Amino acid sequence: MRPVIFFGLSTVAICLALASGVQATTMGSQGFVDIGSPAADGSPTGNLNTATTFSIGLFVSTTSHTGVFTGMPTQFFPSFSFNITNPTSLIFGNSVFGTFASTAITVVENVPGFLNISVLGNWTPGTFGGVTGGPFGSILAFTFTQDPAHRGPISAAATFSILPAVIPEPPSIVMGLTGLAAGVLIYRLRRRRRVTSALA
Predict the structure, then answer these.
(1) Nearest Cα to 161, choosing from 118, 192, 115?
(2) Distance from the CA of 58 to the CA of which of 10, 91, 143, 148 falls in 20 to 30 A?
(3) Tell me: the pLDDT tens digits for 163-175?
(4) 96-141 pLDDT tens trace
C-alpha cells in the first residue's frame, strides 16, 4: 500500500509543479490616433452607426505605450481602410512597428455618435523592441466618435495590444518529468523486492 500512496503523492506534487510553471506573458501595448480624416462609408461625415467601411486618414503612434513598445519613436502610417463584414480586410504597419493583419472584426458597441470595434489579428514584429519570431496574436481596439451623431465629423483612436501567451516554464517541465520518472522507478524497485522476497 505504501508504494501506491507514495506514487499518488508524487503525481500530485508533479502536477502542482507543472501548474506553477505556467505563466502569462504580455509583451506590450501601443496607442494610436488618426490625425487625418477618418471616414465612414467613404465620407468624413458619413453615418458612423450604419457604415460598414471605415477609412483611417493618417494613423500616428502616441506616447501611450508599454512593454516592447516603450520608447518607440512616433510612427506615421499611411491611410488604410477596412470593412467590418470582411474579417481579413484590415492591414497596416511599417518596418519599425511591424505589420498587423486582421483575422476577425467585431462591433463591440454601437450607440448614436459612438462606435467601438475590436479587431483580432496577427502581429509580425518590426525592428523596434528586439522581438523576433511571430506572428503573435494581437488585438486592435478602435474607438470612433461623431458629433453631432450621424452627420458630424468623425474622430478615431485605437489601442493595440499583443495578446498574452500562456507558456510553461522549461525548468518546471523538466522538474515535473524527472519527478514522474523517479516515482515510477521507485515504485517498480519496491515491487520487484516484494516479489523477490516472496519467492525466497
Answers:
(1) 118
(2) 148
(3) 986 555 555 444 5
(4) 999 999 999 999 999 999 999 999 999 999 999 999 999 999 999 9
Residues 6+ apart with CB under 8 A from 180: 10, 11, 14
Residues 182 and 24 sit within 8 Å (Cβ to Cβ):
no
In the predicted model, residues of the chain with pLDDT beneath 70 are 1-26, 165-200
Torsion (CA) 147, 37, 123, 84 in degrees, nearest 10: 60
User: In terms of residues, how long is the chain?
Assistant: 200
